[in-house]
Structure prediction request, 133 residues.
Amino acid sequence: MLIANRQRQDAEWILDEFKKTWTDNKSPLWGYYLYLMTLMDREPAYIDRTAREIELIFRENPDSDILFWILLFLKEQYYNNSFHKLKAIENWVGSGCITIYLYRSILSCMQGTISADAAWKIRDTSAGLGYEK
Prediction:
């Protein structure tokens, strides 16, 4: 919320404190932290590196719906193509995972609003990160 409200200094303080105290850098929560960092630093090379790290965490936590959702925003295949994003969500939901943020993503795709603005303008390009459940 602080990042979206442009309260960058407060967000940086909270994220720095989290980084100092959290020790499990292979957990979904660490992946979410990394995602939040991409919202702070929108440099494409940084986002690509971070997306690859999140992808590795996702491979170790393949049932993590939050990591799946995050990668929908970081992977170019989904970021730039609502059809592919919907197909990936369909596969994920078909395997039994249903969450409110996936429903919101479906709604956004159906309304045609998945764009740079809907994805918080975090990327222009991305390395392919092959994953689908």
Q: What stands out?
A: The CA atoms of residues 49 and 127 lie 9 Å apart. The two ends are 29 Å apart (CA to CA). The longest helix spans residues 44-60. The chain has seven helices and no strands.
